[in-house]
Amino acid sequence: MTGGGLVRGSVILVGGDPGIGKSTLLIQTAAALASAGHRSIYISGEEAIAQVRLRAERLGLSAAPVELAAETAVEDIVATLAAGKPPRLVVVDSIQTMWTDAIESAPGTVSQVRGAAQVLIRYAKRSGAAVILVGHVTKDGQIAGPRVVEHMVDAVLSFEGDGPHQFRILRAIKNRFGPTEEIGVFEMTGSGLSEVANPSELFISQRDLGTPGTAVFAGIEGTRPLLVEMQALVAPTSLGTPRRAVVGWDPNRLSMVLAVLEAHCGVRFSGHDVYLNVAGGLRIHEPAADLAAAAALVSSLTKSPLPADAVYFGEISLSGAVRPVGQTPARLKEAQKLGFARAVLPEAARTETAEPALPLSTVAALDGLVAEIAAAGEASRGVARLRRHDG
Question: What whole-number distance in Å separates Cα of residue 15 and Cα of residue 144?
Answer without folding.
Answer: 9
